[in-house]
Write a structure and sequence with these properties.
Strand content: 15-25%
Low-confidence stretches: 137-142, 171-196, 204-215
Largest sheet: 7 strands, mixed
Helix content: 25-40%
Shape: globular
Order of helices and strands: HHEHHEEEEHHHHHHHHHEEHEEEEE
Radius of gyration: 23 Å
Mean pLDDT: 86
Strand order of the largest sheet: 1-2-3-4-6-7-12
Structural class: alpha+beta
Distance between the termini: 34 Å
């Protein structure tokens, strides 16, 4: 089931395109133009609106929808006949663009509110396979344990330190789970951001609630026994053992494990850079195609409607064909970055053909466990560091 904030932003954007008098009127009439919504979805959306916690999101989404209705690049004041919402359904094929709404079977819209995330895939899918074949769920789960593959010595060394710490102080009984958790442990991803500001560019409103991380859980009465029987090798951990370790490590590393994690991070970052560079080296034009995939550009144009940290986002995303008519790639640089976890940065220098002006666009990839330390094979989560409206090929909506 989609997070409440996701429903407010994505469906609010779609409703704003319909030319109706207000959000409340749209929710009351439950127009059949909005496809893919069950009666339960409508009920939930109405409750979210009535509750008031997502007023800022509803307001921003409604304004973006209205802007798309009026835009020359968009609907040009032509009210849509069909608005389809993807919701929690994953794309069945190799989808390049992160599409949330489809209007009249033609206009594709990605809703991106206060997010710089570009993708979340397996490290092998990025560093070895260059994101070829899309960035859907299948791509994320491909590959094994990247830490064990590219830094086996450092990974095993860290595991042995943690395993010994569990034996020395934490794994003797079920009270170990949670006993190491200091003040505020468990907050963050699953909590509500205190004092969060309204969505930029859309006026005053409510704060932003961040969805929980999810993942496998282990009952407290079983966790102690699980931790007492951890295998000697990190690569032999089961999913249950991984979940127990993630819970035990929830408040942080044992003091003597921090240096080992830093060593692991450095080695993983450098090895990931080497693998990525090697994958790019053989083919001419590989850097250009890599940049397009990093920026989620594919064979079909689409639109991004949302909000950045400073302004509304209303963009038309170019196809590679469009991009090449305006820009050329000068250089794509890949490098390891500091940051407390394995982190790989990238910077592209792009020349605007008409003026000769060179633009910079940058991002980074964090290679990390998605649901807690040792919780499973690590993910490669890509972020855009350049402001969206400054990215070559992200054209402002006219």
């Amino acid at each position: 089931m989609p997070h409440p904030r996701t429903m407010a932003t994505e469906l609010g954007t779609g409703l704003g395109m319909l030319g109706l008098p207000s959000m409340d009127h749209a929710l009351e009439t439950r127009t059949p133009v909005m496809r893919s919504l069950s009666p339960e979805d409508w009920d939930r959306l109405a409750l979210l609106r009535a509750g008031g916690a997502y007023d800022a999101e509803f307001h921003a989404a409604w304004e973006n929808g209205q802007a798309f209705l009026a835009a020359r690049d968009g609907l040009r004041e032509r009210r849509p006949e069909v608005v389809e919402w993807k919701g929690a359904v994953r794309a069945p094929g190799d989808e390049v663009a992160p599409i949330d709404l489809r209007i009249d079977h033609v206009y594709l819209v990605s809703c991106k509110y206060l997010s710089k995330i570009l993708f979340n895939v397996s490290p092998a899918h990025l560093f070895d396979h260059l994101l070829v074949g899309g960035q859907n769920r299948r791509g994320r789960l491909a590959g094994g344990d990247w830490f064990a593959e590219v830094a086996p010595r450092q990974y095993q060394q860290l595991y042995e330190i943690v395993r010994q710490a569990v034996r020395d102080g934490g794994g003797s009984d079920a009270s170990a789970i949670g006993g190491r958790r200091g003040p505020g442990a468990g907050a963050g991803k699953g909590g509500v951001t205190a004092g969060a500001q309204p969505l930029p560019g859309f006026g005053a409103g409510a704060g932003v609630e961040v969805p929980g991380a999810g993942g496998t859980t282990v009952a407290a009465d079983r966790a102690g026994a699980v931790l007492r029987q951890l295998p000697a090798q990190a690569v032999d951990l089961t999913s249950t053992e991984r979940a127990a370790m993630a819970e035990w490590l929830r408040s942080g590393w044992p003091d003597h494990a921090k240096a080992a994690y830093e060593e692991l991070s450095d080695e993983v970052a450098e090895a990931s850079v080497a693998r990525w560079r090697a994958s790019l080296a053989p083919g001419g034009g590989a850097g250009e195609a890599m940049l397009w995939r990093l920026l989620r550009m594919g064979g079909t144009p689409y639109f991004v409607l949302g909000s950045s940290e400073t302004r509304p986002l209303r963009l038309r995303i170019a196809t590679p064909w469009d991009w090449r008519q305006v820009y050329s790639l000068v250089h794509l640089e890949i490098f390891a970055q500091p940051g407390g976890q394995p982190r790989v940065g990238w910077t592209a220098s792009v020349c605007q053909r008409a003026s000769g002006e060179v633009h910079q666009v940058s991002g980074h990839v964090e290679v990390r466990w998605g649901h807690g330390r040792f919780s499973g094979p690590p993910e490669a989560k890509g972020y855009l560091d350049t402001a969206h409206h400054l990215v070559p090929g992200y054209f402002p909506l006219r």
